[in-house]
Amino acid sequence: MLMSVERLFTVRIKLIEQQVNLFGTGLTNLSPHAMTLLSGFVAVISVNIVIAFYIYMAMKEPSNMHQPDPKFLTHAKASVYQPTGEPMESLKKQE
Protein backbone atom coordinates (compact mmCIF):
# COMPACT_ATOMS: atom_id res chain seq x y z
CA MET A 1 0.00 0.00 0.00
CA LEU A 2 2.80 2.39 0.90
CA MET A 3 4.50 1.94 -2.46
CA SER A 4 1.32 2.78 -4.38
CA VAL A 5 0.82 5.97 -2.36
CA GLU A 6 4.42 6.96 -3.04
CA ARG A 7 3.89 6.30 -6.74
CA LEU A 8 0.77 8.48 -6.81
CA PHE A 9 2.63 11.39 -5.23
CA THR A 10 5.55 10.83 -7.59
CA VAL A 11 3.22 11.01 -10.58
CA ARG A 12 1.74 14.27 -9.29
CA ILE A 13 5.17 15.81 -8.72
CA LYS A 14 6.37 14.73 -12.18
CA LEU A 15 3.30 16.30 -13.80
CA ILE A 16 3.92 19.57 -11.98
CA GLU A 17 7.60 19.50 -13.03
CA GLN A 18 6.60 18.96 -16.65
CA GLN A 19 4.20 21.89 -16.51
CA VAL A 20 6.92 24.15 -15.06
CA ASN A 21 9.38 23.03 -17.73
CA LEU A 22 6.79 23.57 -20.46
CA PHE A 23 6.02 27.11 -19.37
CA GLY A 24 9.62 27.99 -18.59
CA THR A 25 10.93 27.31 -22.11
CA GLY A 26 9.64 30.34 -23.97
CA LEU A 27 5.90 29.87 -23.79
CA THR A 28 5.58 32.84 -21.45
CA ASN A 29 5.59 35.24 -24.41
CA LEU A 30 2.13 34.01 -25.50
CA SER A 31 -0.86 36.29 -25.25
CA PRO A 32 -2.77 36.16 -21.96
CA HIS A 33 -5.75 34.53 -23.69
CA ALA A 34 -3.60 31.79 -25.23
CA MET A 35 -1.74 31.26 -21.94
CA THR A 36 -5.04 30.85 -20.09
CA LEU A 37 -6.30 28.32 -22.61
CA LEU A 38 -3.04 26.39 -22.58
CA SER A 39 -2.94 26.35 -18.77
CA GLY A 40 -6.52 25.09 -18.65
CA PHE A 41 -5.86 22.30 -21.14
CA VAL A 42 -2.71 21.21 -19.31
CA ALA A 43 -4.56 21.21 -15.98
CA VAL A 44 -7.43 19.12 -17.36
CA ILE A 45 -5.08 16.63 -18.98
CA SER A 46 -3.01 16.36 -15.77
CA VAL A 47 -6.09 15.69 -13.65
CA ASN A 48 -7.30 13.06 -16.12
CA ILE A 49 -3.92 11.32 -16.00
CA VAL A 50 -4.01 11.20 -12.19
CA ILE A 51 -7.61 9.90 -12.20
CA ALA A 52 -6.70 7.23 -14.76
CA PHE A 53 -3.78 6.19 -12.58
CA TYR A 54 -6.08 5.92 -9.52
CA ILE A 55 -8.48 3.76 -11.54
CA TYR A 56 -5.61 1.57 -12.77
CA MET A 57 -4.35 1.06 -9.21
CA ALA A 58 -7.87 0.20 -8.01
CA MET A 59 -8.28 -2.35 -10.81
CA LYS A 60 -5.00 -4.00 -9.81
CA GLU A 61 -6.24 -4.70 -6.27
CA PRO A 62 -7.26 -8.32 -5.71
CA SER A 63 -11.04 -8.62 -5.60
CA ASN A 64 -11.08 -11.60 -3.24
CA MET A 65 -9.42 -9.53 -0.52
CA HIS A 66 -12.58 -7.60 0.38
CA GLN A 67 -15.52 -9.42 1.95
CA PRO A 68 -18.78 -7.56 2.68
CA ASP A 69 -20.08 -7.33 6.22
CA PRO A 70 -22.87 -9.93 6.78
CA LYS A 71 -24.93 -7.50 8.89
CA PHE A 72 -24.73 -4.88 6.13
CA LEU A 73 -25.85 -7.48 3.56
CA THR A 74 -28.84 -8.40 5.71
CA HIS A 75 -29.91 -4.75 5.98
CA ALA A 76 -29.35 -4.16 2.28
CA LYS A 77 -31.39 -7.19 1.21
CA ALA A 78 -34.20 -6.24 3.59
CA SER A 79 -34.28 -2.69 2.25
CA VAL A 80 -34.45 -3.92 -1.34
CA TYR A 81 -37.42 -6.17 -0.67
CA GLN A 82 -39.14 -3.64 1.61
CA PRO A 83 -42.22 -2.02 0.02
CA THR A 84 -41.94 1.75 -0.09
CA GLY A 85 -43.70 3.79 2.53
CA GLU A 86 -43.59 1.21 5.32
CA PRO A 87 -41.09 1.32 8.17
CA MET A 88 -38.61 -1.53 8.44
CA GLU A 89 -40.32 -3.14 11.46
CA SER A 90 -39.68 -6.69 10.23
CA LEU A 91 -35.94 -6.05 10.20
CA LYS A 92 -36.01 -4.51 13.69
CA LYS A 93 -37.90 -7.56 15.01
CA GLN A 94 -35.21 -9.87 13.60
CA GLU A 95 -32.47 -8.11 15.56
Automatic annotation (TrEMBL):
It holds the Pfam family VMA21. GO terms for biological process: vacuolar proton-transporting V-type ATPase complex assembly. Keywords: Cytoplasmic vesicle, Endoplasmic reticulum, Membrane, Transmembrane, Transmembrane helix. One of its GO terms (cellular component) is endoplasmic reticulum membrane. The chain crosses the membrane at residues 37-57. It comes from the Eukaryota. InterPro entries: Vma21. PANTHER family: VACUOLAR ATPASE ASSEMBLY INTEGRAL MEMBRANE PROTEIN VMA21. This is Vacuolar ATPase assembly integral membrane protein VMA21 homolog.
